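USER: Study each token:
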Amino acid sequence: MDIELNDVEARVLGCLLEKEMATPEYYPLSLNSLVNACNQKSNRYPVVNYDDKTAFAALASLRKKQLVHDVTGDRVPKYGQNFTNVANVLKSEGAIIAVLLLRGPQTPGELRTRTERLYKFETLEEVEESISELADAGLVVKLPRMPGQKESRYAHLMSGPVDIEEMAQATPAKSYASAGDDVARIEEEVKNLREELEELKKRFNDFKAQFE
């Protein structure tokens, strides 16, 4: 599939995919909510600090690529993703793409753990089947195993071909390689709870500001 995104577009699209599955009650997203999602300090790599102008420009570009649509009817403009329809991917595959867009290369075990809030894979084999479908569609590629790594990682191809050397340097050294690792799961759940709490606080402040 012929899609090529810059870093900001990838982050914006990843956030729309993630929030649609993780918090559908708050989806589609306003510009303010989207910026907050992009700038989260948990479940993101790298951490960024976008402003409204940066996110809005990415939305405009994604709209031209037919990957984002405007949602009318609310007082505040909101935005939703078209990627799953355009690329004809299943929810399970969309969850994997979302995590790869937001967190960089992952092992199948990491993907199983980190997609849990978006889509629950019952087995590691299910993850691998979805990865295989995405690879056949030209959306995901298997990376060569790096020194010190027990498993191969997968990266998305939605920003063009992967620079293996650059990717190796950019990938965080800390890894939760085993999906069955209890410590990894607990840390992931704590991050998710903190993220949800911060999002609720921001949404409450946005709602309160409308009446001030």
Summary: Confidence is low (pLDDT under 50) at residues 173-183. The longest strand covers residues 68-71. The beta strands are 29-30, 68-71, 78-81, 140-142, 154-156. The longest helix spans residues 182-209.
